[in-house]
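Hey team,

Filing this mostly as a record. A colleague (T.K.) asked me to run one chain through the structure pipeline before their review meeting, and I want the input and output archived in the tracker in case anyone asks later how it was produced. No errors, nothing strange. Just documentation.

Input sequence:
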Amino acid sequence: MIFVTVGTHEQPFNRLVEYVDKLKEKKVINEEVVIQTGFSTYEPRNCAWKQLFPYQDMVKYVEEARIVITHGGPSSFIMPLQIGKIPIVVPRQKQFNEHVNNHQVEFVKAVAEKQGNIIAVEDITNLQNVILDYDLIVGTMPSGQNSNNAKFNEEFGRLVNGLFHAK
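Output structure:
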């Protein structure tokens, strides 16, 4: 199953909802697709959908999904990461009136480059290939996610030890 969430931002994200629905219609995607459409005005005809799901349902869908596709809002892609999924992240863009600026594009690029634990798709026409090659892409990603907390604790420990051993 593929689960798609566009979050709760008040601007529609029709571009993503419609693109996934068309992939399902063309049978590019053969598995079940569930979409949380938010305030999008496009209503999927080939996928199960609901405007908003209760949080527990969102968690259930993310846990059950083989692939999770989200917009670039941090809370939407952090939850799949916490559950152990590598999400495909399609940032909302100002040029399509999906957000007030391009902060999602910039943030998603930075996370993808620095953390390496999400699959960023800025150009929606690349989404089909990313979905089809998802398992291969995930298989080539570095194993073991870097933990900023672990890095902080390690550096802090070195600093403290250095203070005690300084003469």
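Quick notes for T.K.: Helices lie at 14-25, 55-64, 74-83, 103-114, 127-132, 134-140, 148-165. Strands lie at 2-5, 33-36, 48-50, 67-70, 88-89, 119-120.
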